[in-house]
Amino acid sequence: MDKFKKLGIILASTAFSVGVISPMAQASANVKESQERVAIQVASTETKVTKSELIKQLNTLFPGKFKFVSEKDFSMGEAHYFNDDATIRYDLSFQKTINGKDVFGDFTFKGENLELEYFHYQPANIADALYPVKYSEAEAKKIAQDFLKKLPNTANYKLREDDWFGDFGFSFSRPLSEPITYSFNYSPTHNGVPLSNENLNITVLANGEVVSMYRNTESTSKATFDNVDQKKNESDILAQVRENLSVDLRYIVDYNYQTGESIAKLVYMPPTNFTGVHALNGQWHTLNGFTSQVPTAKGVEKLASQPLEPRKKDVTVAEVEELAKSFLKVDSDKVKLQIESVNERENDNGETIYSVNYMYHLANSGYGASFEVNKATGEITDYWDIRRDFMETDQKVEPIAKEAALAKAIDYLKEWAPSYLHNYSKPIEETIYDKDSKRYYFSFPRIVNGIAVVGDEISVGISADGKLSSLNISNHKIDNWPAVNKAIPADKAKETFNKGLGLELQYAKQDGEDKHHYDLVYSPVYDGSLFNSIDATTGKWLQDVDDAKEKPAISHPTAGGELNYLLQQNVLEVKDPANFNADTAVNKGEALKILVKSLTYGYYDFGPYGRGDEKQSFNNIDKKHPLYGVVEQAVGMNIIQPADQFAVDKELTRQELAEWLVRILNLESAAKHSDIYKLNFADASSIKQEYAGYIALASAMGLIDGQQNKFNATGKVTYADLAISTVRLAKAINEEDNGRHYYY
Questions:
Q1: Fewer CB within 10 Å, N- or C-terminus of the chain?
Q2: CA distances from 547 to 270, 662, 722 (A)
Q3: C-beta separation of 394 from 459 below 8 A
């Protein structure tokens, strides 16, 4: 153990995983995936790869691109491998300041051939990647394709045109001072058939620079594949799936990143008991392999019929510390447990949570993590056992039976989180057993109005010897659950699924005896998507292909481009773009919202369970006001200052906009010296002295144009005017500090 040191738990990105599993099953499967990947450091004496070799490999892949970085500017990280992949990785990075702007790059190479697995590069000049774009998406696709050709063993990679890796329904804005990027995803193929759960992602800036790549693929040098020529007719498999198709009524939890609110939707989902059909023999594909019998869905069976008493009410810090010492103890004189800290925080539900940070100290290494306890109930809500990362275990031990492991999991929940159990059911999905880690992963879904909730579950890991290896409780605070009696009939939903049903041929590798064999699988697709559901109240697809169509355009002779850009970036909200009059005056509330959204990621951590230090800056804008978050964010950004009232509905004037823009750029102190500025507008004498500096700076920087040699300070700002100024502001911010001038 002296040669290795745990670096930390790596959250594996599900955004890079495309598989043949259903949404609910995927949620269960990812419990293991998101918590299991652990990086283990390799002692320097165990590897002979040098920094110079990595730099040489980098320059081979990117000839001349990084010639401005000297060898001393590069840093080499500790070599490491992952618990689920023994291939050694080597990290190389640099960071420099060029002409006052930060430039950095991170690179990961793997294996003896130093294959580039990942890189991210932040260039110094990204001005050409802002609106208006220098390269279109089609041109960027060609650039990505050319880059792909430079990478070894990618001749069989195929671009995925189905936009798997989009935002999955999230529609928050991004700072417009950040560069516009295009993301392209490729799947490795064999005989033209994609390999599921493997992909390569390339990101290209709108200025034509390739700035990132991530490769989640495996070597197929030892792999065997089912013969495509032996596959059954697609029509026969389609008939088989249709004959056994069922639909399940579920709630799904959707998180609104702009309001911080969790929303429940009532949906019909495709069957979760199977995820495809073997293309050669017609067997059903499940999370645990293939079966000739049609998998049947399990019904809801609550873990407790009545509420159980909490483990211990209103626990103190001292009690939590004592719990940690007992819960985390190790029976070894070679390991010392140290409780680093116990911190309080408030979660999204408004509950007080203790976060316990701890370390296991060994002779030559250390392992650290944290677990969480609910203050009101004394119950453990999040835990991952890291002791198995350094404690020797009997690898030959036979795992306990699945039923015995399930009984153990329920017993642990009764011991450590009893008050939650009456709201959760026994697993209704396939139980996962991971043969590498020798752990069972159980998902206990939350039950509301008698049906399961996708996105709210208790996840429990049980090791082969029956010990608790992980526990996580998801329980979103949702006040309004759609009524079940509002759902369309199940037969009607099934009819829609049948009409939208199709098949996609994929190669899928199983977690079985032969880990090098790829089975040929027909995976159901619904309305063109592997992961799709029907809104149970409207009968429409949640991910309808029509949603991918461009929004109707806004017409305007001088600001059409800017207006449509803001619309596409979710900065501007317009219900009927085709009939929108952009020459309408914009009020202060709407103008402030557009500006704030253009500078931020569009969600504001204010509200009943927000930062905990919320203030009310204006008497007429309380927490119930729809613009409360925007207004308070604007106060924090110094765009506006607290006062008695904020005139939300009053039309914004050009002089007020000039003040806001200058304050955003942190030039207020310069603008206050109004006597040093000379305004060259014909109506300069009518401009109030208090606005003169702001107008002079905003005009000189090109943020606001004059009108026929007049500024018209008290004139109204239109949506078109604001769109032009907002886009120009983003450029100015980027030129000032390379796009870092935004707020979360």
A1: C
A2: 20, 38, 27
A3: no
Omega cis (within 30) before 132: yes
pLDDT tier for residue 603 given thresholds of 50, 70 and 90: low
Alpha-carbon span 224 to 479, nearest angstrom: 52
pLDDT in tens, 279-316: 999 999 988 889 999 888 788 999 999 999 999 999 99
Rounded to whole angstroms, the Cα distance separating 555 from 581 reads: 8
The span from the CA of 254 to the CA of 265, in Å, is 7
Task: Please tell me the pTM assigned to this model.
Answer: 0.77
Q: Which amino acid, 81?
A: Y
DSSP string across 416-454: H-GGGGGGBBS--SPPEEETTTTEEEEEEEEEETTEEEE
How many C-beta atoms lie closer than 10 Å to residue 641's C-beta? 10
Helix, strand, coil proportions of the chain in percent (round to 5)? Answer: 25, 30, 45
Handedness of CA 384, 390, 394, 396 (dihedral sign): positive
| Of the candidates 670, 674, 684, the residue with the CA atom closest to the CA atom of residue 713 | 684
Q: Indicate the angle between helix axes 588-599 and 719-737, nearest 10 degrees.
A: 30
Question: Kind and range of the H or E element at 319?
Answer: helix 317-327
Q: Which amino acid is at 208?
A: G
Judged by DSSP in three states, 470 sits in strand
Cβ count near 11 (within 10 Å): 10
